Amino acid sequence: MRRKNQKSLLALLLIMIVSLFAVISGCSGEEKNVKSAGESQETKDKEEKVVRIGYQKYGTLNILKKQGTLDKALKSHGYSVEWIQFPAGPQLLEGLNVGSIDIGHTGEAPPIFAQAAGTDLVYIGHEPESPLSEAILVPKDSPIRTVQDLKGKKVALNKGSNVHYLLVKALEKAGLTINDIEPKYLVPGDARAAFEQGSVDAWVIWDPFFAVAETETGARVLADGKDLVKNREFYLASRKFAENHKEVIDLLLEEINKTDQWAKSAPKEVAELLSPELGIDVASLEKAAKRRTYGVQKISEQVLNDQQVIADTFHQLKLIPEKINVKEAALEETNN
């Protein structure tokens, strides 16, 4: 009987040990799961501290990238920067639309086409008017002497870019429309090749490609933006990013302003700084830097009204399918 009781007690003790081990294992598993979830969230938070900036081959953002000043300023606030280059504004804003970048810069036309296509972007700042930084070019020995002579000719341009509006306005002044020419929609690199090979009769382009064409091919200016367009450079962001990262936007504009103040009085230094990275000769970059304007500004009611005029023009020409309200792409703190 005593031996039987000992066996029962032993069995009971074994059951208790197994149960206790199960409880301890369960708690340990929960701790591991909690720790794992915490680490995942920490990793996610770190990943979310990256600012992705889209840039083109020329502008203040290029100077910031080269100098590293914006990277340093954002690093002190816990952010890192990823720089992504695009051939032109329309492609850059497509990147913004699909979520590949958070911030970028373009001319005046790309955000209108992008907004019309449903991109949820906002204007966060702009550079002053720079009408001399874009032009309609023809080869140096071309018989074309006036914009009226473009009737029936092949004209290369990047569709939806700032020069699209320049071409529309230049043709309008000459009594023509976009339907009176044969537009060839090409990115700058392809357009340059077509221009040099004689596959197109004219090329509508912006700096620094404009300056390079003058310097290297002797291209002749048929018309620039003077008295036709304002040609502002805009800084844009996805609405979600701008609303959730105001400190980044403010810091970006602050650093742009500092760089602009230096660049406007140092065109040769700007050219020498950017030449190795862009693969463009110093003379061409200095030419472009001298005719560009500097000094970042906040978005005003007047600027949005000017953008609305461009949007309405594109709608009338059926270049965008529906009329848009540019002010829907403004942040609340827009200046009156």
Automatic annotation (TrEMBL):
SMART domains to which the protein is assigned, alphabetical: PBPb
Q: Where is the Solute-binding protein family 3/N-terminal domain?
A: 50-281
Q: Which domain of life is it from?
A: Bacteria
- UniProt keyword annotation of Transport present: yes
Q: Which Pfam families match?
A: NMT1
Where in the cell does this protein reside? Periplasm
Keywords in alphabetical order, please: Lipoprotein, Palmitate, Signal, Transport
> So what family is this one in?
Belongs to the bacterial solute-binding protein SsuA/TauA family.
- NCBIfam families in alphabetical order: PRK11553.1, SsuA_fam
The name this protein goes by in its record: Sulfonate ABC transporter substrate-binding protein
